[in-house]
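[job 4471] stage=fold_predict status=RUNNING
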Amino acid sequence: MARILIVEDNAHQASLLSMWLRKNRHEVEVASNGADAQARLQADDRAEDGRCIDILISDVNMPEMTGIELVRWVRHERGLDIPILILSSRCDQADLAGELGSQSVRIFAKPFSPSRLVAEIENILTRRTCGEDATRC
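[job 4471] inference complete, writing structure tokens
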């Protein structure tokens, strides 16, 4: 089970995504924008249980702070090496990948297949648990 932070300003989209992930036994938190996500990630530092976010899933276009700005903050300001999945309805996926540069993110175009997204999360968790050589598990 992973602790997943969903950053999505569309409440319906966030609710559906949460439902899919909880159905697959993940612990899910939702932030409505990048600034809210920053606060939640900073709260992890002060959490008594010591648990941190395992995976970040973020929309690109949001008020207050875009997904791209959030990724840069997570990587550069916070120095976190957590897996990040970006959800985007932008038609310029190549440009988006260029904007994200070497931030080590996975981009999913909207609309996306929930089963494909869950499968990607499971692959990420397996690689992180077993190392890049998942045959060791």
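[job 4471] summary: Residues 7 and 58 are 4 Å apart (CA to CA).
[job 4471] exit 0
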